[in-house]
Automatic annotation (TrEMBL):
PROSITE patterns: ATP_GRASP, CPSASE_1. SUPFAM superfamilies: Glutathione synthetase ATP-binding domain-like (SSF56059). One of its GO terms (cellular component) is cytoplasm. Gene3D superfamilies: ATP-grasp fold, A domain (3.30.1490.20), ATP-grasp fold, B domain (3.30.470.20). This is Lysine biosynthesis protein LysX/ribosomal protein S6 modification protein RimK. The lineage of its organism: Bacteria, Bacillati, Actinomycetota, Actinomycetes, Kitasatosporales. Residues 91-267 form the ATP-grasp domain. GO terms for molecular function: ATP binding; metal ion binding; ribosomal S6-glutamic acid ligase activity. It comes from Streptomyces scopuliridis RB72. Keywords: ATP-binding, Nucleotide-binding. GO terms for biological process: SOS response. InterPro entries: ATP-grasp, ATP-grasp_RimK-type, ATP_grasp_subdomain_1, CPAse_ATP-bd. It comes from the Bacteria.
């Protein structure tokens, strides 16, 4: 299932082409522009897996959940996608399972954050259902809340987290096929710095943290945004089926992972991750690609309250 935003995007378009080139049957559904007869779409074709490249709030996730509800394999698991798309839920689950997720506040309107003490600032505020960096704001002090309120109106529930002092560089770690790959990017919260993006070695401590996040959230194809703060790595966002930018041989790796997940059923939320997450060896673009046996896939492109550290802690 390909959301309209990704209709011409390399991920998943190139993955679809790769699967077809290997001899697999790929049916494409565009939920944003199609009239769908659900009983026929969900059951038609006897697909081995459904794959969704989704946007926050897009129509594809509901259809993916319908497929999962009748026992079909989805990539990622539909419950896991919903769990990380809702950043309120993701913060609760992450902190409750011991991940280094910042203390998180939730509000319906940004001006309500003025009820926090000045010592809680600076804050990073973003939509609870946001994606691709949309609506992320750095609020340095309570008197700056009015300046960001207009830009966040209509975004629904918001979350706010303390700003983590850092070098101005974000670390994006991608998980695919049981391996982790790291990319360094200039932070959008530091617009004055030179813009850059490059592959970098993955520190062992970050690798352990990200592998644990994949297990906790039940994701097989994922990305984790990490900041290297004064006290170690901090998880600031988790994404299902990201862009995999600068991952070596990304298209073939993702395609092989989709086929394997179609056979195994993937990782259920909260279950142990499938195998270890070793640091990857360099892969050349001309590296040979193993072609698995054919399968059939349906692919896609109030007041502030604190998120508690555990489910039983009062907010």
């Amino acid at each position: 299932m390909v959301e309209e935003q990704y209709r011409f995007d390399g991920m998943p378009v190139e993955v679809i082409r790769q699967l077809g080139a290997w001899g697999h049957r790929v049916d494409v559904v565009r939920p944003g522009t199609s009239l769908l007869r659900l009983s026929e779409v969900v059951r038609a074709g006897g697909h081995d897996a459904w794959v969704l490249k989704t946007v926050s709030g897009g129509p594809g996730l509901a259809l993916l959940e319908a497929a999962a509800a009748v026992g079909l394999t989805t990539v990622n698991d539909a419950r896991s996608i919903r769990g990380v798309r809702d950043k309120v839920a993701a913060a609760v689950v992450g902190r409750g399972r011991g991940l280094p997720v910042p203390e998180t506040y939730a509000v319906a309107r940004p001006e309500l954050l003025a009820e926090l003490p000045a010592a809680a600032f600076p804050l990073v505020v973003k939509p609870a259902e946001g994606s691709s960096g949309r609506g992320v704001r750095l609020v340095r002090s309570p008197d700056r809340l009015a300046a960001v309120s207009a830009g966040l109106s209509g975004e629904g529930m918001l979350i706010a987290q303390p700003y983590i002092p850092n070098s101005g560089v974000d670390l994006k770690v991608y998980g695919v096929g049981g391996e982790l790959f790291a990319t360094e990017r200039s932070s959008p919260l530091h617009p004055g710095q030179p813009q850059r993006e490059r592959s970098v070695p993955l520190p062992a401590e970050v690798a352990r943290t990200v592998a644990e996040a994949g297990e906790v959230y039940g994701l097989d194809l994922f990305g984790v945004d990490v900041l290297l703060g004064p006290d170690g790595p901090v998880i600031v966002d988790v994404n299902d089926f990201p862009s995999f930018r600068r991952v070596p041989d990304a298209v073939a790796r993702v395609a092989r992972a989709v086929l394997e997940l179609a056979r195994t059923g993937g990782t259920a939320p909260g279950a142990a991750a499938v195998g270890p997450f070793p640091l990857p060896e360099p892969v050349s673009e001309s590296a040979p690609v193993s072609v698995p046996e054919p399968v059939s896939l349906l692919t896609s492109a109030g007041v502030p309250f604190r998120i508690p550290a555990t489910a039983g802690e009062a907010g």
